[in-house]
Each structure stands twice: as C-alpha cells, then as structure tokens.
Predict the 3D structure of the following.
Amino acid sequence: MPARVSANDFEQEVLQADKTVLADFYSDSCVPCKRLSPVLYALEEEYGEKLKVVKININFDSDLAERYEVQAAPTLVFFKNGKEEARLRGAVKQAEIKEAIEKLI
C-alpha cells in the first residue's frame, strides 16, 4: 500500500530511495485522486521491488507541492536517483502510468 510521505521524511523516502519512486501529489477532496488510488496500489503490487509509490497530501505539505510546482491534483511525479524524471497531471489512465514506469525502471 502506498505510504503517506511528508516534508519530514521526503528526502529519505523519495530522494534517497534505491528504486524509482512514483509520488502522488493528491488532495482528500479530489475525486480523480480517489479514483486513482486503487490503480496506484495495483501498480505498486505489480512492479514490486522495482517501484515505490508514495502519497503526498498537497493540503498538509503545501511546501513540497510548491517546491515541485504542483498546481493541480492529482499530479504524479516520477523520481529516480533523487531527480524528477517524468510527470503526469490529471486523471490519467493506467496505461499512461505504466508507460512512464516502463521507461524508468
């Protein structure tokens, strides 16, 4: 299950991770975010040791949202070796997310 990450553990959990990280910048009041949640859970299960999925609430961690210029929820930011490598915005399909993952793992 994707772990909730905050500004306190972002560096360790995302930037220092030893695998590709998919960071879901979401809001609790966002309907597309809620629909995306089971898709991300399934992808984390499917890719196992190659992918880590984390969730960042933009309302509670607005500093992280600002730092990564997240202007809408959901925004999926892919990190590899501590750097942003790709980004998807809005209600994207599972196939689009898988395509981005495949390019990075």
